[in-house]
Amino acid sequence: MTPIENLTSSFECLWETKIFLLRTIEATDPATQGELKSILADVAAARNRVEHALIALQAKPPAAPA
């Protein structure tokens, strides 16, 4: 896989993690929700960083063949 494909897969995994955490938060008691919301914030921040890295990587011209 190319670096862009790997980074895209990472972004997709983080997106799915966010969705599953949201579902879990909805189904748990309020005492547990606080910790899960904290984890969700970390995952969302990581997802945003990966998204920015992906955009930056896509903007770079491909390396010239050797």
Layout: helices, strands, pairs:
Blueprint: H1 3-27, H2 30-59
Helix pairs in contact: 1-2
Residues in helices, as a percent range? over 70%
Structural class, judged by helices and strands? mainly alpha
Average pLDDT for all residues: 94
Give a quick account of the main beta sheet: strands, pairing sense, barrel closure: none
Commentary on this structure:
There is one protein chain. Helices cover 83% and strands 0% of the residues. By secondary structure, it is mainly alpha-helical. The protein is elongated, with a radius of gyration of 16 Å. The two termini are 19 Å apart. The model has no long low-confidence stretch (mean pLDDT 94).
Give structural attributes.
mainly alpha, 2 helices, 66 residues
